[in-house]
Amino acid sequence: MSKRILVAAHNHPSLHPGGTEIFAHDLFRAYQREGHEALFLGATNQIHREARPGTSFQSIGSAGDEILLWSGHFDRFFMSQIDLYGVVPDIAELLREFRPDVVHLHHLLLLGAEFPHIVRRTLPDCRIVMTLHDYYPICHHDGLMVRTGSKELCHQASPDRCHACFKDIPLDRFALRERHLKALLSTVDHFVSPSAFLRDRFVRWGLDEDRISVIPNGIPHRNAGARRELLQDGRPVFGYFGNLNPWKGVTVLLDAARQLLADGLDFELRVHGGAPFQKEAFLDEINRRFSETAESVQSRGPYRREDIGDLVAAVDCTIVPSVWWENAPLVIQEAQAQGRPVIASNIGGMAEMIEHGVNGLTVPPNDSRALAAVMRRILEQPNLLRQYSENARRPDDIDTTARRYLKRMETVQVQA
C-alpha cells in the first residue's frame, strides 16, 4: 500500500554534501521508486541561504517535492528552535497539507528536538521514525564524543564529564540538556541505527533497546567508467575521500606518508576533499604537510558526489583514518562496492565494516606510526590488495535499504 513519507534532514546535499544529507536524500528518492509519495524537507540557515520574510520555507529543485526550512534561530546546546512562534505554525501547516503517514527524521540540528513533538501534536496517528547518524543528542562537542582538552575518545557521557569539557557551562545545564532531549525524543516511535556500535551507545545513554533497530546504510548503484585494474601503474595508489577537518585524521595520514617517503618508499596518495569552514591554523597545518610530501601526495580538492564511484575505482586502496567514533562512513561502502580494500581506524562502526586481514586493514586511531606500518605492509606485499579485494563486502543498494525501512515502518507502533 502506498504511503506518504516526509523525509527530514538538517540540510540538503546540494548545499552541504555531508554523509547524513546524502543518505537521507538517496533514501527519499528510493521511497519514490518504490511507489510511495515522498517529500524531502531540509533545514538550512544563513550559511547557505538568506531568510525570505513572510515564510519559513524556500524552494529547492524544480520538481516541487523538495523544500527548505530556514532555521536561522537555533540553540545548538539544547538543539532547539528559539523562534518557536515563527516556525511551529509553518511546520504544522506543512504537516496538515502533506499529511504524511510516516515522518522519517534524520537529525535534530536546525530542525529542532521539538520536531517529533510537533508532528505528534499535529498528526497523532503519524508514525515517527528517526535514523541515528551520530552522537549529537549525547555529546555537545559536535556529537563527536571526543574530549575537548586531551582529544581522547569519550566512552560515556555524563553531566560531570561534559562539564569537564566545557567548564564555562554549568554542570546543571548539562543535566537539564539530557533530560530535555530524552523527553522530546520519547515522542519518536522507533529509532534505526546504521551500526551496532552506535545503537549500543544510545542504549547506554538511556534509549530503550527494543525501540532501536540496526539497518546498515545502502548506496545507489553506480556504473563506474572504465575500471582501473589493481596496481595498474606498478606502484600502489592510496586514496582519501572526504572533507578535511581535525576529526577525519588527514593530518595523521599525511604524517604517515611523510614517514614512508623518508624511508624511500614509492607510492602515490590522492587526497580528495575540501576544507570548508576550517580555522586558519588547521589550514596552515594541512598546507605545510602537503608541501612536505609533495613528491608523492596530491591534493585534488573537492569532488562531486556523482564522481565518487569513478574516483574510488581509480585508486588501489582507500584510507579512512578518522580519530572519532565514525558510525557508517559512506566512503567505506563506496570503496567496497568497487572491490577496493580499505585501511580504517579500528573504532566505531568502521570496525564493523572492515575486518583486519580480510577485506582490508585496521589501525588504532590517531597513530601515524601504526598507519605507516600497515601502508608499508601493502607496499611490500602488494598482492595483499588482490586478496582483500576478493573479500570485499559489497553494501546493499539504496533500494534494498529502502525496502528494509518500509518493512520496519509496517511494524512500528505509534506511541500513546
TrEMBL record:
- GO MF terms on file? glycosyltransferase activity
- Give start and end of each Glycosyltransferase subfamily 4-like N-terminal domain: 17-220
InterPro entries assigned to the protein according to its UniProt record, in alphabetical order: Glyco_trans_1 (IPR001296), Glyco_trans_4-like_N (IPR028098), Glycosyltransferase_grp1 (IPR050194)
* Residue ranges occupied by any Glycosyl transferase family domain in the UniProt entry: 229-394
**Mind telling me which CDD domains this protein's record contains?**
GT4_ExpE7-like
Pfam families, alphabetized: Glyco_transf_4 (PF13439), Glycos_transf_1 (PF00534)
Output this protein's name.
ExpE4
